[in-house]
Design goal:
single chain, 120 residues, alpha+beta, four-stranded antiparallel β-sheet, 40% helix
């Protein structure tokens, strides 16, 4: 009888711990395709992310087209401030992919991608 109680207590505690972890650090949403598989070193990952973004969003490009494409990939758009961001909490880090742009007459004149994070 005691074994049964201990077994079920352990199972319940495990389930609660797993549920708490998934609540704090959900596996979804996944990072945008352009942000997946980056190196673990932040400096190397930042350089690779910049290379990918600049290759994927070449001029000429309208702001409207950029916003639609980034939104389709899951970025949150802040059009007035001219940037898009995607954040993901993955223990022990919070990761951020950010793309700033400058516009002239409705066209993108400059893109500045930035990848980074804060870890415990």
């Amino acid at each position: 009888m005691v074994r049964k109680v201990l077994f079920w207590s352990f199972g319940l505690l495990t389930l609660i711990a797993l549920g708490g972890y998934l609540l704090l650090f959900p596996p979804f949403p996944r990072p945008p395709e352009i942000a997946r598989g980056l190196p673990s070193d932040f400096a190397e990952a930042d350089a690779e992310f910049a290379r990918r973004v600049l290759a994927a969003f070449q001029s000429p490009l309208t702001v409207e087209e950029l916003v639609v494409r980034l939104s389709d990939q899951g970025f949150t758009i802040h059009e007035e401030a001219e940037y898009a961001i995607f954040e993901k909490s993955k223990f022990p880090c919070t990761l951020r992919w950010r793309i700033h742009w400058q516009a002239e007459g409705g066209s993108v004149s400059n893109l500045t991608p930035k990848y980074g994070g804060a870890c415990l």
